[in-house]
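In this supplementary section we document a worked example of the pipeline. Step one takes a protein sequence of length 477 as its only input; no multiple sequence alignment statistics are reported here. Step two produces a three-dimensional model, which step three serialises into structure tokens for compact storage. The input and output of this example are shown verbatim.
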Amino acid sequence: MASVREIASSTMLWVKELPTNIFKKTTSKLLEIEFVRRNRNSIVICLIIWLIASVTGYLILNSSVKRLNNDFYQYGLSVTQKLASKIGPSLLEKNMLSLNVAIGEVEGSNNLIFVSILNHENKLVAHSDSEMINEISIPIKNGRYIDTIKGISIEAKSLPDNEKIAGFSTIITFSGTNIGKVYLIFSSTQLYSSISKYKALFVYAILFSVLLFSAIMAVIDRISKTKALKIQKESEGITRIGPYILQKKIAQGGMAELFVADYVREDGFRRIVAIKKILPHLIENSEFIRMFIREARLAALLQHPNIVQINDFGKFQNIYFIAMEYVRGKNLAEITAVAKNGLPVDQSVFIVSQISRGLQYSHSKLDDKTGKPLNIVHRDISPQNILVSFQGEVKISDFGISKARSEPSLTLAGVIKGKLSYMSPEQALGQSVDHRADIYALGIVFYEILSGKKLYQFGSEIEAIRFIPEKECTGTS
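The serialised model returned by step three reads:
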């Protein structure tokens, strides 16, 4: 039974990984949307600009609100200090004329509602409203305390009629003795109205920027689609890529198409090669282009008789291509489709031994600069990617989803790459894999070419993902 510490550690690990997993899954779902995939770079740039503009707008709004508040309260403090500095002797002597004159001097202040002067018993001595004299004064009842600055207490309150007021009060002393208090009430409705207008303007600006962002993205997407369509039409009719003259298409996958081509030099030298180029409708797809370039880079590192050799890689009129050796023969899937009862044991052993040599070479290949293992894993060993020439050569092809330790991953965690019927449990679950995934897949290929039967047959990808991790190879289909 797991200890409390183990449960706590597992829970903490799950909590730490949860945001990352949510981000990866969300990103994966977004990248499945054609619009997002087609305009990913433009969306990122526009979002960065929008975020910078939004943060800048918020900072300006915050600064403006602080300035309005500061101006209002500084003004109230100034008027209160001015009045308090004048009435000390007059309040002590109860000189009503002087007190009323002092009140009259501040009565014209902006947004001032009334002024009251109280004695030490909290009874009104002077007031801007003469009818309030001799009353017990409670200028702001249940007001919200804001701050005390230079001995002046500030309170605020919202009245039932939606009027907002702010009170400024300070104690009047004479020779260190409390002789009374001065109280000023200002209307802060205009202040809050100005702040509300600023906030509304910010919200409208955000909404407008979202609409503008959407309009810009719509225009960018339209331009992108028009450009992609133009390039696609141009590439569909192309018969020559640099020195390579395309003869006929021999295969097509989800990312690229394969042609037999003649390599012709100016001096008359000719050679038949295989040209692999990205499908026309994917020419503008940056993700597929990165995968294609990555395939060429990894495959070019591998120089072995049991691996299809890369002769050239480049870009011609917006078309990325790989020129590789042309293997005159068939892939293993085509061969086993004819030999329905499986291949003879000696032929099967020979084919698997040759592929094993190629895999051993790729798995143990060292970096020419650092001397460290590259740990290249093919990740898609299947009959379709095993070529057998008419002269008996056996070669591994298609390193499109291969992975080397030195290469950054182009596949999000949890995203499955490869043919499900030949996947190891780890690969089917979208986990990281090593060279053992290729050996596992080769074992399945070996079984199938010997028996002439499929080891796994699934009705859907979901069935395969659920089934493969629990499957035990029993020798039956």
